[in-house]
Give the backbone structure.
Amino acid sequence: MEQHQKNSGRFGNWIRTSVTTRMIITGTLALILLVPLSFVEDLIRERSFRKQEVMREIGEKWGGEVLFYGPVLQVPYKILNEKTVVDRETKKVYTETTEHLAYAYFFPETLDLDTGISPEEKYYGIYKTSVFDSQIHISGAFSKPDFSEGDIREEHILWDKARILIKISNQKGVSNKVKMRLNKGEYLFKSSYENNTDNYQATVPLYVLESQPVQRADLPGTENSTFGMTLDIRGSKQISFVPLGKETTASVSSDWKTANFFGEFLPYNDNKVHENGFDALWKVLDINRPFPQQYFQTPPDLGKYAFGVNFMIPVDEYQQNERSVKYGFLVIALTFLAFFLIQTMSRINIHPFQYFMIGLALIMFYTLLVSITEHSNFFRAYLISGTSVVLLIAAYSYTILKSVKFPIFILLSLSALYTFIFIIIQLENYALITGSIGLFIILAIVMFISRKIDWENSSAIPVHKPGETGTVA
């Protein structure tokens, strides 16, 4: 029994005094702490998904994203098919003609889109998203439809059944009567439900609005037929347009100061963003886009060629939280390394349980960060969480190390580390190079500090009895 206690004591002393063993135990603890760190990442994703659900719910009630596609001149025509039929009784051969209806679609010669947007933020509980009211002034002209490309005879064209079509992704958000002035006539639009099923294969589902039959006098002939209309529509997230005109010009203005332009075509004016918002201008010619001016069958999905403006909230706190968690293992590893070097140089024993408590405190930083961010901005949340955790670890290290200079070193080191990570999170284009340079400097500092450590003699750390304090080498 006495021999067993003696051997156990030697084994315990070996664990406390062996540098290699302490390194293995410290590294193992750091890896174990990856488990609760992954739980924090799952929590952030869950809260982020909840925010997306709330944004979709607000969009469904207010109005979703706006994609405007039109106007399009739709002209029906007859297709005659002839087939040879043999009479079974008389055995006579004769020709049978069948007729069915098809549609030709013609895009405007010129199309001008002048849009004013008034965005605002909508709150639902602790979450917020951007919505807007927009007024789109549409004008332009149609040139005479050319059916020669489709080899269609004039007598087969049903001019009296021609209509104007408009497609929008957010029918619910329209807040005025939709009517168009075409040449000298004025035409009201109504929903067309029979064609909507095909649109759900598109990039964005589109709803069709069709006009009353257009009078022959208002259709383009020897001269172009000009048109004009105004569309008031509410939406959320973004607004975009398909450049259907042979020459399409567009202008979008708003007091939203963090505009994000997207799509196949970007604004051409350099001064589009200013201190009061933005004024963006586009000009797209038919040679700039990969589709023609007319179709003799249902046009394909052209929504993928749209351009526009995004009004999403520019700073996503959950994305910043997720980026900060990605540096969690780096923070744990560097903090454990600092305590390991202090333990090795000062010959003060630090129990693995104390390492584990320090690691849990570091992980608590991220749970504090995400919870406070939901009620405040990211900077304030980061400052409160970082300050709380750094002071807690510094105070805890004072009770372990029984000295003032080492806790101060821990305090300054953690403060510098959290500041460095905050800077990296804010950067986008220079995050990689800044992080690489920072890690190189940290590595150089560790190499400089550890250069004088006698790894052979450092293993001979005295084991203190209860009540005794460690001596600093």
Q: What stands out?
A: The mean pLDDT is 81. Residues 247 and 415 are 58 Å apart (CA to CA). The radius of gyration is 36 Å. Residues 18-50+317-459 form one domain.
